[in-house]
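Practice problem: predict the structure.
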Amino acid sequence: MQVFSLAARDAGGYRSRMEQDSRILGDPGTPLFRVDKYPFYQLNRVANRYNTLIESRLREIGIDVPSWRVMMILGETQPLSIGRIADKAVINLSTMMRIIQRMRRDGLVVSARNPDDGRVTDVSLTPMGRGRLAEAREITAPVYKELIADFSAADFDQLIALLLRLNDNLARIAPGSEALLK
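Answer:
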């Protein structure tokens, strides 16, 4: 694949340093922009492909990806407020409220007023929800294991560190977005 650009080539015919810098190639504001070097395109592509892959597996046990995300979050810490779950799941609050209502109707979660702040609704998994979470983890774990099979521990740690760094940069640029990816 050849990169075409407006930048001048050096006498040896090699691409200029600018053309080799993926940060520049991933910048949508430059004439050198290449979508395959745009990190958010790649992140979105990976996330969508992963969600599509696990969605069919989750459907077998009667849950969808948004419910699975809620269950994974509550499986780590509960109770949590609906707002906090929405932040962690990167889902807007009104959508999260509908997801929680559906999960409550299905017997996967219970909700109650927070004892310290009556304006806040806390959510917890029911025994049925914990069982469904265990099933979901069991059927999604092989996908995860295969996806990371050729990553060394150092590669994986670096991937997570870089994603967290992008998240921190977003929080600096857009205050209030720091909850994303945490």
